[in-house]
Amino acid sequence: MSGDQVKEPTEAANAFAILGDFRAKSPAAAPVVTKEIEQDISRVAKDNGFHSREAKPETSAAKTKRFNAAEPKKQLNLKIPVPMHDRYYRMAEERGIQVLHQLLGDALDALEEKEAKAAENKE
Fold first, then answer.
1. What are the backbone angles phi and psi of residue 26, rounded to the nearest 5°?
2. Alpha carbon 54 to chain centroid distance?
3. Residue (of 114, 91, 115, 87) closest to 102 by Cα position
4. Hey, which of 36, 77, 97, 116 would disulfide with 92, CB 3.0 to 4.6 Å?
5. Using CA atoms, how far apart are residues 104 and 28, in angstroms rounded to an integer?
6. What is the 3-state secondary structure (H, E, C) of 4-47?
7. How many other CB atoms are found less than 10 A from the CB of residue 72?
8. Phi, psi of 38 (to 5 degrees)
9. Domain limits of the chain?
């Protein structure tokens, strides 16, 4: 094909044209599961180590429950060394802090106070 010839656009196939033959299955086509069948399924699953897909209440208290205050929040992600991370969580636990941003707020307040005292001493 040379550069001065124009290719005519072709018509795209209509993907929905074949859906006219679509029919929903009748309710009778659905499998009938009786209590006896459900019990058999449960027994076979239990015998073979399968677990239920139903959610179970969480029993582990690995994380301390945190409370969320009503004021607006913004996300702050920091990558810190593991010892500093461990120290942060240890300090929060020792102080009974349940919302981790409180510890950061306390640290910032202490730093501002220290800088204000240093500025007073220079004058």
1. -75, 155
2. 19
3. 91
4. 97
5. 62
6. CCCCCCCCCCCCCHHHHHCCCCCHHHCCCCCHHHHHHHHHHHHH
7. 5
8. -60, -40
9. 98-123
